[in-house]
Structures are given as C-alpha cells and as structure tokens.
Amino acid sequence: MKIFKKFVCLIVTLFPFVADAAPIRIKDLVEFDGVRSNDLVGYGLVVGLNGTGDGLRNAPFTEEILSNVLERLGVNVTGEQFRPKNVAAVIVTASLPPFARAGSPIDVTVSAIGDANSLLGGTLIMTPLNAADGDIYAVAQGTIIAGGASATGDGASVVQGVPTAGVIPSGATVEREVAFDFAGMNTLRLALRTPDFTTAGRIEQAINQNFDSGVAVMLDAGTVELNITATRMASPAHALGRIENILVEPERRARVVVDQRSGTIVMGEDVRISRVAVSQGNLTLRIQEAPIVSQPNPFSPGDTVVVPRTNAAIVDEPGIGLAEVSEGTSLSEVVAGLNALGVAPRDMIDILKSIKASGALHAEFIVR
C-alpha cells in the first residue's frame, strides 16, 4: 500500500503488476531482410452503379477513360455526347506479398476519386496494377463489396460508413513475380521492429545456442546478421523456418503513451517515478450574455435600444491538494492513487505531463 496525502491521509490498496515477461518468437520481433511486400496501384473504372456514379461534368477524366475502354472493345464513340450516371473512376490499390507466384490471388481496395456518391453494387472492369518500377504485376477485376450505405431524398440525405470505398477479396491475379534469389543467399540480416541492444544480444545468443555454432552476429541495436552456410541446413528456407520459432524474451523501454483526444493512458510496467509532490485544481471562467431590449412608450419619440448585460464569474472547482509520492513508486501505483482520489483522465494527463517536465518521471513520454 502507498499513502497519498490530500490534507488527510488516504490509504489505497493497489493491484501489483506481473513483472515476468513472456518469451516471444523471433518471427514476431524481427523482419527478414528482403522478405517484404510490394505496393501496387492502378487506375480503373467501376460500372453498374445505380445512378450514384461520377457527374461527368465535374469528372471529365471518367468520360475519357470510358471512351478508351469502349474503343478498345470495338465501340467508336468519337465525337459522341454521353453522360451515364452509373460509372465511376477509381484508384485500385493492393499489396503484393513476398514469394507470390504467377496465378496467385490477392485482395484489392477500390476508392472513388471523382464525385461518385456510392460504389455499392459496382463492378470493377479489368485494371492493371503497377509497382514503383512501372511494370504490371497484377490485374484486378470483380464485384466491389462496399462497407457503407447511403440514401438521398428531395430534402435530406443520410450516409452510414464510407460507401465510396470498398474491397474485392481475391480480386486480382498475380501476372509477374518479383525476382528474388532467396535460395542462393549465404548471409541474411534480421531487422528488429523495435531496435534494442539487449534484445538483439538475446536473439544472437539464442540462435547460437540453438545451432551450436557462430551463426548469428549482432551488428547494432536493430540488426542481427545470420551466416546461412554455418547452419548446415539444406537451404536458407529450412534455416529460417527453424530460427523464426526460437523463443526470446524481449527487453522494452519504459514508456508512457497518452491520447489527449480520448483521454487514454497506456504505460509499461517498468515506468518509475522519483519523490515528487503534486497539487492540482480546476479554474473555470464562465461568461453569460443576457441582453435587455428597451422600447419607448407608444406614440412617444425614441428608438428601440438593446442594452447588453453580461454575467462573468470565475469558479475554482475542487481538485486534489498536495499529494506526496514516495521514492521508487511505479507510475501504475501513482495512477491508481489518483483514480482513488477521483481525478478525471484528462486532468491525470496534465499531471503526468507536469511530472515529466519536473524530471521525476523516468520514462519516454509520448503524447498523441
């Protein structure tokens, strides 16, 4: 128990944190060098909308791509005036996973770029997807599943969700593979998602103990290099399949993350606070306007005058008095004590920011 002083002593019973961290698989802590996805993007056309497509006067690019598609299909529309309401121009995005082979299906996301009201019920026609090098790696086509709904009347409209964006599960087919000679690699680097010297050292030690040889070498806080040939495995794939399931206990930095918009506070178990005293109160300024209209008597000279009347007051609402925290107290205990004193989450965030500014909070403080 910790004692928090607020003019009188309050005894608060606290729930202790579990200090032991569970071992984590290496595959959940690192990224393998070269084993990564590639972003794809394409510009396409959605048809079959129920009058919720682009207004072609405001989106001339939709008319242009529609003309190109029809001409490729053998329909000559040169010089014709057509303004359908069931067509929308869209941007199609996808992620090409590592080791994806030709013919593999991937999911795509479709987003309207014009003034279309909804993509519900629409069908994406054949759209090539390009990578950063400009080459086509997949082709997308299919029925869109939108995650919203919209309805419009003469005097009002209602929208739920985002009907102008949707997905097509397995809507694209891989046409070209990314060249990557994984089987011929002799060395491979592991990139830690959260760089830390202690964690990298533990990964190096765990791998070397598992293979009984100098397979892993820590290069820095975020990189561990593997000598694939020293594993004496049949291939790099066999070696990584064994390495990625080795358990390692990661080391985490003391960190406090607060979200001022929602009043959320997230903290690690290693956060500590030095001896500090806290006093907090709320000051509220209230201004209320109550104007009075003064009118002359009937048939008498004079003008109607609005006389302003303002009521202003400053209210000092009760907060917490002087609260003293002893040396070595964990931040979780401090927050539990502040909760027992009835401190609101947003006031608690201000208190934590002030404690950090005083130098008594020994952790990385992140405000979002």
Structural account:
The chain is of the alpha+beta class. It folds into three domains: 2-16 and 255-289 and 316-367, no CATH class; 38-174, no CATH class; 181-248. It has five helices and 27 strands. The protein has a six-stranded antiparallel barrel with strand order 5-6-7-13-9-8. It has a four-stranded antiparallel beta sheet with strand order 4-14-16-15, covered by helices on one side. The two termini are 32 Å apart. The model is unreliable at 1-19 (pLDDT under 50).
Provide a concise account of the structure shown:
This protein is 16% helix and 41% strand. The protein is of the alpha+beta class.
What features would you highlight for this structure?
16% helix, 6-stranded antiparallel β-barrel, disordered N terminus, 368 residues, single chain, alpha+beta
Count of individual helical segments: 5
Please summarize the sheet with the most strands: 6 strands, antiparallel, barrel
The overall strand count is: 27
The rough form would be described as flat
Mean pLDDT: 78
Structural class: alpha+beta
- What is the helix fraction of residues, given as a range? 10-25%
Q: How many domains comprise the coordinates?
A: 3
Beta percentage is: 35-45%
| Separation, N- and C-terminal Cα atoms | 32 Å
As a whole number of angstroms, the C-alpha radius of gyration is 32 Å
Oligomer: single chain
Strand order of the largest sheet: 5-6-7-13-9-8
Low-confidence stretches: 1-19
